[in-house]
Design a protein that fits this description.
543 residues; alpha/beta; Nitrilase/N-carbamoyl-D-aminoacid amidohydrolase; 17 helices; 19 strands; ATP-binding; Gln-dep_NAD_synthase; ligase; Rossmann-like_a/b/a_fold; nucleotide-binding
Length: 543
């Protein structure tokens, strides 16, 4: 029996860009035909982009997707194509249609609709009720959409109908635990059914979600036949042997570094680049403080966009150390970005002077500290407006969790690359990026002095973060248990943490929900990100 030759389109298809997505599909169909593919496979909701959210409530949007699907069907002579799209027939379904010989031959509807984490499928779609199977060059193939493979029933239905191969199209977002989970689930489905599995995933950033690709070929015995690299756009070639129910990849690209730091860094770069480019901004702007968060954000921005599209601004006051001034300038010059130093001491003092009569009888406190941060926010927003460069916020997840950030100050920004990255991980990523630069003979991307210094907001004399917070190793360990694992205070204390520290940290997390609601979006890279995924009430008596 002849092998089935497949082309897998691990590419980005932008939300709402229906005509552009269809044009890309048409080009890839042509490439697949030229390469001798029997079938070319596209990700979940290719035509609409994923997730289209309330665009799905607009009849004109659904009609545009339907029109493009029919037009694409005309381009499939000589090669079949499996395309993801929203399908409206009174109700809306998340669908995968097989296009062949100029027509839409079969349409499969997603059966398992996820409604957890970042997913809201039940808000928009109705579930399908059976798994579609189709013959492609003598091979019986089951058609599944994303969550369908995470449940045993859809794959079992396909196997009962005689399927030898399962094609699963996905828009599965990346987080730091996802790939291990995927491989475990796919291996289990293959062993349960005896079917080989082609798992094709979307790649690219969409607002707060980042899709990694990392497509997989799984043999009928559950073993992994091939892994595609994460965050790489590629037309992947594969062959299926129906006799052995095995798959093979043809010259798939290989990741140079598949460590968790490398993949996480790639996720942050991709999320930042796609957010800026898809929203049509020419470049970005950020406040460079001489601290590690802004230093890592600058490195990410340069890697994402190129130095010519990045502006960094140092805004010193009387409390800014020479170490901060030197570190910021050294990094800006090393990376070759547009760099400005704007002393805000006089501007800050003018605010203090104007407020002094209204502050009569009250001593200095965090109000004056926050006023420095807000002065910087005013300056950065003005520069962003004047130069048309999107402002990046530089705060990390540890700070956002406990409210160690100033509304309308250092929280100013339209996108926050480190929003879902704990402080301890910021250090790991900074050291990893420097190690990569050293291997390439490029020197330090982030000055070692910036990495090694005690973290400080520098809003008063001799200030360090640990004046207000537990050491970050301890803080992050508590936060991860409370946020990601949803553990109770008692459970966290039972693991050896001091009860008073746990109570204080948890209180800060719950107290600062109102701040997080006003924070910029940023790429989701953990299993419980603030914003789209973790949605706690602001007003709540639960403690």
């Amino acid at each position: 029996m002849a092998r089935l030759r497949l082309a897998l389109a691990q590419f980005d298809f932008a939300v709402g860009a229906v005509a552009a997505n269809a044009a890309k599909v048409g080009d890839l169909i042509a490439q697949a035909r030229t390469g001798g593919a029997d079938l070319v496979v596209f990700p979940e909701l290719t035509l609409s982009g994923y997730p289209p959210e309330d665009l799905l409530l607009r009849p004109s949007f659904l009609a545009a997707c339907e029109s493009e699907l029919h037009a694409l069907a005309q381009a499939t002579n000589g090669v079949a194509a499996l395309v993801g799209h929203p399908h409206s027939e009174g109700e809306v379904f998340n669908a995968a249609s097989l296009l062949r010989e100029g027509r839409i031959e079969v349409t499969a509807h997603k059966q398992a609709l996820p409604n957890y984490g970042v997913f809201d499928d039940k808000r928009y779609f109705r579930p399908g009720h059976e798994t579609a199977t189709v013959m492609i060059d003598g091979v019986r193939v089951g058609l599944l959409v994303c969550e369908d493979i995470w449940q045993p029933e859809p794959a079992a239905q396909a196997a009962a109908a005689g399927a030898e191969l399962l094609l699963v199209i996905n828009a599965s977002p990346w987080d730091n635990a996802k790939q291990v989970e995927r491989e475990a689930v796919l291996g289990a489905r293959a062993r349960e059914t005896g079917c080989a599995i082609v798992y094709l995933n979307l790649v690219g950033g969409q607002d707060e979600v980042v899709y990694d690709g990392a497509s997989l070929l799984v043999n009928g015995d559950g073993s992994i036949a091939a892994r595609a690299p994460a965050f790489v756009d590629a037309l992947l070639w594969a062959e299926f042997d129906p006799v052995t129910r095995s798959l093979s990849g043809e010259n798939w690209p290989v990741a140079a570094d598949d460590s968790i730091e490398a993949t996480l860094y790639a996720a942050l770069v991709r999320g930042t680049r796609d957010y800026i480019d898809k929203n049509g901004f020419g470049g970005v702007l950020l406040g460079l403080s001489g601290g590690i968060d802004s230093a890592l954000t600058l490195a990410l921005a340069v890697d994402a966009l190129g130095a010519e599209r990045v502006t960094a601004v140092m805004m010193p006051t009387r409390y800014t150390s020479q170490l901060s001034l030197d570190g910021a300038r050294a990094q800006a010059e090393k990376l070759g970005v547009d760099y400005h130093v704007i002393d805000i001491e006089a501007t800050y003092q003018s605010f203090v002077d104007a407020l002094t009569p209204a502050f009569a009888g009250k001593g200095a406190d965090t109000t004056e500290e926050n006023l420095q941060s807000r002065t910087r926010g005013v300056m950065l927003m003005a520069l962003s407006n004047k130069h048309g460069r999107l402002l990046l916020a530089t705060g990390n997840k540890s700070e956002m969790a406990v409210g160690y950030a100033t509304l309308y100050g250092d929280m100013c920004g339209a996108y926050a690359p480190l929003k879902d990255v704990y402080k301890t991980v910021v250090y790991k990523l900074s050291r990893w990026r420097n190690a990569q630069a050293a291997k390439a003979g490029e020197g330090e991307m982030i000055p070692a002095a910036v990495i090694e210094r005690p973290p400080s907001a520098e809003l008063r004399d001799n200030q360090t973060d640990q004046d207000s917070l537990p050491p970050y190793d301890e803080l992050d360990a508590i936060l991860e248990r409370f946020i990601e694992r949803e553990q109770s205070q008692a459970e966290i204390v039972a693991q050896g943490f001091h009860a008073d520290t746990v109570r204080r940290v948890v209180r800060l997390v719950l107290l600062n929900e109102f701040k997080r609601r006003q924070s910029a979006p940023g790429p989701r890279v953990t299993t419980r990100a603030f914003g789209r995924e973790r949605r706690y009430p602001i007003t709540s008596g639960w403690r």
